[in-house]
Design goal:
By secondary structure, the protein is an alpha/beta fold. The protein has a single domain, classed as Nucleoside phosphorylase domain (Rossmann fold). It is built from 6 helices and 6 strands, in the order αβαββαβαβαβα. It has a 5-stranded mixed barrel with strand order 1-5-4-2-6, surrounded by 4 helices. α4 links the parallel β4 and β5. α1 runs parallel beside α5. It is globular, with a radius of gyration of 15 Å. The N and C termini lie close together (11 Å).
């Protein structure tokens, strides 16, 4: 088992994933933050992406064009979290690399389609992993919230230490089981 900090953004994260796969990685767990698009759904729960809306460019170099890419490893991750009795929500996510273009209209469309969160890497990493034939698992927590009149930074950049440790322990345990 190895750990590394993935860069922010789909293309940068995919570059590093390519290198890690070249070094021999075959099962990967990506664990990080996202912005909530539905505070009722995500509050107090981890998020298991089942599909990612492809609003970035990298995934199109690895998979045929489509609006969404399925996260094929979601079922395995759901089984593990159920075994561990960890509260989570399964949902679609919106992958975008244009964070300052998360307009109200785009947010409303993604939310209407069932996206619970917005993040920057899931579609890219999923497409890269599928193309290379490796298992890419993806687990998120909602750090900030876009589901309101104004942006709520919540715990983004200042997660309480006890929460950080709890989430890290979950990620390590999940990582040993994938």
């Amino acid at each position: 088992m190895a750990y590394y900090q993935s860069p922010i953004g789909g293309s940068a994260a995919a570059i590093v994933l390519e290198e890690v796969i070249a070094m021999g990685a075959r099962k990967l767990l990506f664990f990080g933050s996202a912005g909530s698009l539905d505070k009722k759904l995500t509050s107090g729960h981890l998020i298991v992406p089942t599909a990612a809306y492809r609003d970035e460019g990298t995934s199109y170099h690895y998979a045929p064009p489509s609006d969404y890419i399925e996260v094929k490893t979601a079922a395995r991750l759901i089984t593990i979290l159920d075994e561990l009795k960890v509260p989570f929500r399964k949902a679609k996510v919106w992958t975008t690399d244009a964070v300052y273009r998360e307009t109200r209209g785009a947010m409303a469309r993604r939310k209407a389609e069932g996206c619970a969160a917005v993040e920057m890497e899931c579609a890219s990493l999923t497409a890269c992993g599928d193309f290379r034939g490796v298992d890419v698992h993806y687990l998120l927590y909602a750090a900030d919230c876009l589901d309101g009149v104004a942006w709520d930074h919540r715990i983004l950049g200042h997660m309480p230490e006890d929460m950080r440790e709890r989430i890290l322990r979950i990620a390590v345990e999940v990582g040993t089981r994938v």
